[in-house]
Design goal:
By secondary structure, the chain is an all-alpha fold. It is about 70% helix and about 0% strand. It is built from nine helices and no strands. The longest helix is centred in the first third of the chain and has 23 residues, at about 15-35. The two termini are about 25 Å apart. Residues about 90-100 have low confidence and may be disordered.
């Protein structure tokens, strides 16, 4: 899939296009934030927020600019906002307007979903334990407790888009662990 094609499909809520864009640019955004924050957890959180915001606002993306530049700019702004909040020592959870949530279609199983469901449960649980705790948690809430995105969002006190991006990333990492065997 080509980037422009993926962006166009993502603007129409195509799940595969979102996965493609996440896979293509995750390392760039994460590396950028790792240099800025010098902290793996912060870099990962900001990267998740970056994709969450980007997928929510993808319809505003101007194709005159490179997609990677757009993502890095969003990421940089999220980090600046975080630093400002920390300097004020005022912590406030993000309040997203529910109408602006991105509706990522989650009916059709992705290739990662197929790989995951082909594994037997014992092996799968061992593989899940290899993920970072926050990825284990979203996998557990979604696939074992069968909570909706909205319920997971409320449980974790995080915006729905962050939950969706975390799940995309968790499924991708889990599929990679399974395939290495």
């Amino acid at each position: 899939m080509e980037i422009k094609d993926a962006i166009s499909k993502a603007k129409n809520n195509n799940q595969i296009a979102f996965n493609f864009l996440l896979d293509t640019y995750w390392n760039d955004v994460y590396a950028f934030q790792l240099k800025r924050t010098e902290n793996e957890n912060d870099a990962e959180d900001i990267t998740i927020q970056t994709f969450s915001k980007a997928f929510d606002k993808i319809h505003t993306y101007n194709e005159d600019y490179k997609f990677k530049t757009w993502l890095i700019t969003i990421s940089k702004n999220i980090h600046i906002d975080l630093v400002r909040k920390q300097q004020r020592s005022f912590r406030n959870t993000s309040k997203d307007n529910e109408d602006s949530y991105l509706d990522i279609i989650d009916d059709s199983p992705s290739p990662e979903d197929k790989i995951i469901t082909e594994q037997n449960l014992a092996k799968l649980l061992r593989d899940i334990k290899k993920l970072k705790p926050h990825y284990q948690e979203v996998i557990n809430l979604r696939y074992f407790q069968e909570l909706s995105y909205k319920e997971i969002s409320e449980e974790l006190k995080e915006p729905i888009n962050n939950v969706k991006v975390k799940l995309l990333r968790a499924k991708k990492l889990l599929a990679e662990i399974i395939q290495k065997k």
